[in-house]
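Q: Hi! First time doing this. I have a protein sequence and I read that you can turn it into a structure. Is that right? Here it is:
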Amino acid sequence: MTANREVRETLRTCVGMVIPVWFPEDLSPAHIQESLLSTLDDCDHYLPWEQVLLVIDGDERSHRIARDLQASCQAHYTSSFDVLYNRENRGKGYAVCLGTQRLLEKKGVHYLTIRDADGDHALNDLVHLLRLALHLQSAEQTDKLLIIGRRNHPNRTLGFVRGEYETLLNRVLVEAVCYTLAQQKTVLKTQYFPFSGDAPDLHSGYKLYSRSICELMVQRPWELSPWVGGEIYRYGVEAVPFVEGALAGAIVGEITRLTREARFTGHSGFAKPETNAGVMLWTFLRLGIGPQQGAAILDNHLSRLTLWTDPRGREDLLQLRRFVLEPLFQAAQLQPPLPQVTAGAYF
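A: Yes, that's right. Below is the predicted 3D structure, encoded as structure tokens:
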């Protein structure tokens, strides 16, 4: 079987798609419909409609529009995507968890892709994600895979501040995982990361997971001890599967994808110190990283950010640092003062 044929047949038989759906209140119904149509357009050319699932995250208006589109799809194609409605808005992570659980009930699903509903994720990039997954499955002889659709210029679409926070999160997560795996005499394979040498784009919302990694997700690691609050479902949706997957021995691969200009975002909170701190705090607690080690990991990356050179940006980054380290000191039953950041001041 040729590689291209293997990709086509795997798409038709073994890939499921979860699309978490939530739109801001100020977005018109016409724009919601247009975004959903853009996201769903041509899905049937890649995989069966029955393997596509929209998970509506507490947005009744979007639920009505999705149901109307579902009926139109059924009338036109005699089959349609599925719609799962969660009445309470609990964040993208919870929606992804619910959708993953539903699709894993289909025994033939071996891979799951997550795509946002904002029109940013081009469907044809799914072919490249799957091709890399099949290659790594063969080359590494593993069924534990996490494939990332990398954005070349996230700052351009996210805005400068949020882009800087995502860069920080990505670098901190990778170093924290590498530190923990080193304690276990294990090495995180990074040869499938970008050639630039930087951390992978962990916070890209376009990913492909193998079934074994999806099974970790439906165990809801967000809710396991240590519990850092329900906001982890909103802002830790990309971080948690990476951490859990890496601990389970997953191979992480990355391939560049098309990035479109999004007309809106449902995650403006990612530009705030406290939300990013919550994800880092969960990561350090989950990995058993203490306050001194956590401070060192944070300080390795804070002063390398362009945001650090701006007085207001530095103030916000230091606030993030406090939000992370103070609970770590409390968990370790140690008393502040917190260690000071010195590298940025020297260099």
